[in-house]
Structures are given as C-alpha cells and as structure tokens.
Amino acid sequence: MRRILVLLAVISLLTANSFAHISLIEGHHAKQQTFKVEKVAGNVYVLFGQGGNIGISYGEDGLLMIDTQFENIADKIKTELAKLGTDKSRFVFNTHWHGDHTGGNPVFGKDAMIIAHSNVRNRLLSTTDRDGKPRTPTAKVALPMITYDSGLSLHFNGEEIKAVHLPKGHTDGDSAIFFTKSNVVHLGDDFFVGRFPFVDLNSGGNVEGLVKNIGELIKMIPSDAKIIPGHGAVSTIDDLKKYHQLLIETTTIVRDQMKAGKSLDEIKKAGFPEKYKEAGSGFIKPDGWIEAIFKSYSVNMTAK
Fold first, then answer.
1. Alpha-carbon gap, residue 159 to 179, rounded angstroms
2. Fold (topology level) of 32-245
C-alpha cells in the first residue's frame, strides 16, 4: 500500500509539473485572474480571464466571440457572457491556433460556427505540437468550419467585421479582426502591450514578419481606434506605435551584434540596455526575445 501511495504522489507531482509547463508555454498567467467583461466601444466588449483576451460583439444579431481561452474555464466565461444577455455565441473567430486562444472551442463550437485562417485549422489537425511532440488532433466540434487565406467579412450586429490575415508574424495563421463601425481592432498575439512578444518559430512565426505586420497595421488602423491586444489592457494606436518602436530598436541591437560576428550566448550575456527592463518583465524574458530575433534573422540571412 505504501508503494502505491508513493507512486500516486509521484504521478500527481509529474502531472502538476506538466500542467505548469503547459501554462507557461501558452503564455497565460499561472495565477488566478478576475473574469470580467468591459465595454470597449459600440457593440464591442472585451473579456479578461485566463489566456488571450476575448473580443465580443453583442447586439440585435446575438453574440460573436474572438478566441475562447481554455476549456476548463468555459463555465466562468459563460457566466460573464450571460451578463450581456446570452452565453451562446453564434460565431467564433480564432486569431491563431495556440491553446490559450482556441482551448474553449470544444465548448463554444457546439453552438457557434468557428472561423479562422486555413493554417489555424491545419495546425489544430496536426498530430505534433510546437515542439514536434505527439498530440491528439483537435476534435471536429472545435475546428474552424469556415477558413480563408487573405481574409473575409462577416456582417453582424449592424457592422462589417473584417478578418485580415497577417503572414508569418506571431504564427503563420494570425488574423487581425476589424469592427469597422465600432472602430475597434483585435490584434491577437501580434500585440503584447509594452512587453517583448512571443514569436512561435515552430508554428511559422518570424520576427521580421511581425515587425513588418505591425508597421502595416499602424497604417491601416484609424488614429482614434481602440485596440484589443492578445494580452494586456485595451490600447490606442500610440501604444501600438510604441510597441513597434520597441520591436525595431531591440531587433536592431541584436542584428548589429550578429553582423559583428557575436554568438547567441555572447548577445544574451550583453543583454539589452536598462530602458528595456520593463519590456522583459512579462512572459517573454530578454533571453527569450534575443533568441527569437537571432534565430529568425539567421534563417533569413541563410535564405538570402
């Protein structure tokens, strides 16, 4: 009996460590967060919880969601949605395939039609995860039923809701969602407010692509629009410009050292100037951002 109890304890510890690792990979806070819905503008709301920020459109046509966080907290999400008038969404957009944005699809997909870039569906159907390890393909109910390559429009709650594909940024399946009348844009994980971003190189992400995409978005987004990031508070175009400048400055620092023949370890040891300390206090630390830049531009230089 003692051996069995010891074995169960070990299994429990391994399981806990495994979930902790998954939590860190998916980039959501390990600690419990407050679930709450806040109005952004027009028919658009944002739901903060665990994982990526959920965008919401609610009006005469019903409920639409952008991203779904995790399956095991779907009941908490539904409780907040019900305060608007219903907990059943008619449509769900996924900004990309990561679990903190698509994990609730099995629950919300029972009522909603899921829409995403074609690469999101392909990766959810994949038998390997981001590290190349085996994974069970996502169940049919949680898969996007409608996919697109460059983008599409949905007319809902009195406005055109436009999905625009952003190639090879955070992943290879990223989309920005524009609420054209409410003047709100959801940028998914292409935008981490005031923090170094997570670029998933194993899912087709690329630092150079991300920097380019943010520059293009700044041109596309109205100056008075409100922006829902993948992680962080509702922001403005000025916040996005500051983020873009952060990307440009830090990638330039790393690239200059690469051109000087410095190794990845040497660049990590040198680090970034003190002014970027706060940017490195989030999910992605300075070493992680330096490595993403180094690997992205190494591949780009080799390709050229």
1. 7
2. Metallo-beta-lactamase; Chain A (3.60.15)
- Where are the domains positioned within the chain? 32-245
96 vs 177: CA distance, rounded Å: 11
Which residues are bridge partners to 161 per DSSP? 154, 179
Phi, psi angles (nearest 5°) of residue 13: -65, -45
Q: Is the pTM of this model over 0.85?
A: yes
Determine the Cα–Cα distance for residues 34 and 54; give it in Å rounded to an integer.
Answer: 13
Angle between the 207-220 and 237-259 helix axes, to the nearest 10 degrees? 150
How is 31-46 classified by DSSP, letter by letter? S----EEEEEETTEEE
Say which amino acid occupies 226.
K
Which residues lie closer than 8 Å to 219 by C-beta, 6 or more apart? Answer: none
**Per-residue pLDDT tens for 33-85?**
689 999 999 999 999 999 999 999 999 999 999 999 999 999 999 999 999 99
- Return the amino acid letter for 50: Q
Which residue intervals of 139-285 are DSSP H helices? Answer: 207-220, 237-259, 264-270
The answer to whether 170 touches 205, Cβ cutoff 8 Å, is yes
Is 104 within 8 Å of 70 (Cβ atoms)?
A: yes
